């Protein structure tokens, strides 16, 4: 990936007193967090802790009380931040004859992709894929991609246009060990080269220890937050995940 250090307009995302309810159930309770540009924050917790609910809330898919704001370096509000999102998995018929090129063009166009492809469109898609070292899959069918290749295609799609805030919801579920490390290295390069804020939900604690700048332990509210070593040494972390050796 080429070194392109573009400082984004976004400085931080502020979440204050965020609460999400469903009927009489409290799904998230008084969440207070901030995410900064140039920082990879890992969101961890047991199943049912509210990680996906928090992501859906940030994406505008859940009603909430409290406040989510996006700030420039001078504390001025950003009204329409660009948010990129990579889901845990893409549901599609693996027998469909849709190529990577077709898929990526379709995400940015209302025109049926089977009519024709402009040369300029192909070149743009190729450039997007080259950023993630996977331009060789441009003509492959989506159903023929490995798990790691598909996730890099989804990541490339989420980066057009380049977001202020990138959200990755367990993006390497089902990806082999080699694919995991490649994906995390790629995400780290994005953080360093484009100075974007990244929120990653993951169960891969060893890789989080290796790549994350900050960790948030969630259990419907923020239990612990801080640098990786500090959070991993807390009693709350040990209670949630049990004792484990995460030396890397």
UniProtKB/TrEMBL annotation:
Transmembrane segments: none annotated. It comes from the Bacteria. Keywords: ATP-binding, Nucleotide-binding, Transport. InterPro entries: AAA+_ATPase, ABC_transporter-like_ATP-bd, ABC_transporter-like_CS, Metal_Ion_Import_ABC, P-loop_NTPase. SMART domains: AAA. PROSITE patterns: ABC_TRANSPORTER_1, ABC_TRANSPORTER_2. One of its GO terms (molecular function) is ATP hydrolysis activity. Residues 13-244 form the ABC transporter domain. This is Metal ABC transporter ATP-binding protein. It comes from Candidatus Fimicola merdigallinarum. The lineage of its organism: Bacteria, Bacillati, Bacillota, Clostridia, Lachnospirales.
